[in-house]
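Incident log, support desk, overnight shift.

02:14 A customer reports that sequence design results differ from what the structure should imply. Their input is reproduced verbatim below. On-call engineer (initials T.W.) acknowledged and began investigating.
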């Protein structure tokens, strides 16, 4: 039985980045804050544009979701009123109350898991290192939501 051996090419990224200066700029090994890489105007522009795009898309998706949920409730009410479906409101009320109790229980035990806490800490460190970029993003996001 002939066994076919696959050969793989291995790409040494350290050697690759030495030959490609643009690669080194984008994926620098010392990827600290953006303040070290870009001036204030560039950071504000990058943050503002990405924030505006995110806010604009968030607004459009939010309107679509609100329309779909509202339209669904409207259609359910019409179907209930005309007799196509019957809603057991006591069961709905019981399930809503159960969900409220679970939310109260989870919010009272205000402890974060270690994984979530480490991710939150990473985000806070990133925000502190990139204050200008974050400010531009927040402003752009609000503008995108308003447009």
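02:41 Re-run completed on a clean worker. Output:
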């Amino acid at each position: 039985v002939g066994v076919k051996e696959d050969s793989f090419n291995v790409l040494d990224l350290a050697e690759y980045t030495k030959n490609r200066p643009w690669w080194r700029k984008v994926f620098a090994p010392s990827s600290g804050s953006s303040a070290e890489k870009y001036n204030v105007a560039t950071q504000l522009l990058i943050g503002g544009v990405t924030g505006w795009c995110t806010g604009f898309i968030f607004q459009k998706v939010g309107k679509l979701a609100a329309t779909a949920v509202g339209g669904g409730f409207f259609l359910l009410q019409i179907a209930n009123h005309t007799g196509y479906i019957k809603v057991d409101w006591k069961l709905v009320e019981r399930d809503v109350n159960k969900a409220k109790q679970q939310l109260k229980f989870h919010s009272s035990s205000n402890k974060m898991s270690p994984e979530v806490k480490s991710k939150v800490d990473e985000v806070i460190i990133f925000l502190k290192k990139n204050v200008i970029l974050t400010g531009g993003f927040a402003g752009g996001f609000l503008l995108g939501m308003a447009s």
